[in-house]
Write a structure and sequence with these properties.
This protein has 358 residues and is an all-beta fold. Among the domains are: 128 residues, Methylamine Dehydrogenase, Chain H, CATH 2.130.10.10; 81 residues. Strands 1-23-22-21-20 form a 5-stranded mixed β-sheet, with no helix packed on it. This is BPP domain-containing protein. It comes from Mycobacterium angelicum.
């Protein structure tokens, strides 16, 4: 990827009347950067923890019910890892089970986690305390990747081929009509609020934004970009943060006034390719192969300068043991209450990075 500001912007459909971003702010990373402004102090200590556990994980999520990391393992189980980072980590494993690409904590009952099972054409309901399956339900064709529309209290199931999205009512597990897309998507992200079905689809063909009172919802905008990582804004639900496979840039993409069409409202370039993106109420987290870069969401004020403010950059790799651990690629990201957690491919370690204060 090019470490300089992007020479061209991805193409958006429809008219967009927001800020025209000609070039992104370039961020040079290395070590921990901070000043007396927001981001200079941390919500926990130390800044980086490295914990060896009893499983190799990918695509973790944080369970507030267990106060633990929950993730699929490489040997097709679920793992719950508690006390990460304090020297007493405990790993609990489920029996082997069919797994899709990710898992999703239930918004209706945080004691349960949903597990897509594309081979069975079902989604399993697993009790987090016991890690035992207690139910399953139909979620459309070959459900492989899950997201939540928290406002409508529905689960969104993306099919294994990436062309179908099936919403499921979390109260009674009633399947709604399946929506079919023209282009295959890799991931999906649902809205955090609102009384309509609302979600973004992401993949090599770009971003597709859907919103409507029923399923299938109406497509409200699209944006051509080879999306490698994405995360939604929990406050301004029409906004999404994405990384392009061909640029080391975080883009904020939003719908134009009136709700139709998508366009870039801000962007900032980092020093290396972005592997994972995540958000909480006030911050954006971009994980590269070496650094975790933390940005401010500015959900209410927007980005009048056309750039996304950087709060802090942390070099997490320098804390890792020698190879093969230090050179292992990332396999996932989860956001906890005061730390961000990263997992590694084929290595039984969890990295914890403290969140910076605003």
């Amino acid at each position: 990827m090019n470490n300089r500001a992007a020479r061209r912007q991805p193409r958006a459909s429809g008219r967009f009347t927001g800020i025209v971003v000609g070039a992104c702010v370039v961020l040079l990373t290395g070590g921990v950067t901070a000043c007396s402004a927001p981001g200079s102090t941390l919500e926990s200590a130390p800044a980086v923890t490295v914990t060896r556990i009893n499983a190799t994980l990918h695509d973790p999520v944080w369970s507030y019910a267990l106060h633990a990391l929950v993730a699929p393992t490489d040997d097709h189980r679920l793992a719950a890892v508690s006390h990460v980072g304090d020297g007493t980590a405990q790993t609990k494993l489920s029996a082997p089970m069919s797994l899709g690409r990710n898992i999703q904590i239930s918004d209706a009952d945080e004691r349960h986690v949903f597990v897509p099972q594309p081979e069975q054409g079902r989604v399993a309901v697993v009790d987090l305390a016991s890690l035992r399956q207690i139910d399953d339900f139909d979620a459309g064709p070959a459900p492989a990747y899950l997201a939540a529309d928290a406002g409508m209290r529905v689960l969104l199931a993306l099919s294994q081929d990436g062309y179908a999205v099936t919403p499921v009512d979390l109260y009674g597990y009633r399947k709604l009509a399946t929506a079919r897309a023209k282009d295959s998507a890799t991931t999906i992200d649902g809205s955090n609020r609102g009384r309509q079905i609302e979600y973004h689809l992401y993949g090599p063909a770009g971003i597709r934004y859907y919103k409507g009172s029923s399923s299938p919802p109406e497509k409200r905008g699209d944006f051509d970009m080879d999306v490698v990582a994405a995360a939604g804004d929990s406050t301004k639900v029409s906004r999404t943060y994405v990384a392009d496979r061909n640029r080391n840039v975080v883009y904020a993409v939003d719908s134009r006034r009136g709700g139709d069409g998508l366009g870039i409202v801000a962007c900032t370039q980092v020093s290396s390719p972005i592997r994972y993106l995540g958000t909480d109420d006030t911050r954006i987290y971009a994980a590269t192969d070496r650094d975790l870069v933390v940005f401010e969401t500015a959900s209410f004020t927007g980005y009048p300068q056309g750039s996304i403010p950087v709060l802090r950059t942390v070099d997490y790799r320098q804390q890792l043991p020698d190879d093969p651990v230090r050179s292992a690629p990332l396999s996932g990201m989860a956001i906890g209450p005061d730390r961000l957690y990263l997992t590694l491919q084929d290595q039984p370690y969890v990295i914890g990075v403290a969140k910076p204060h605003l």
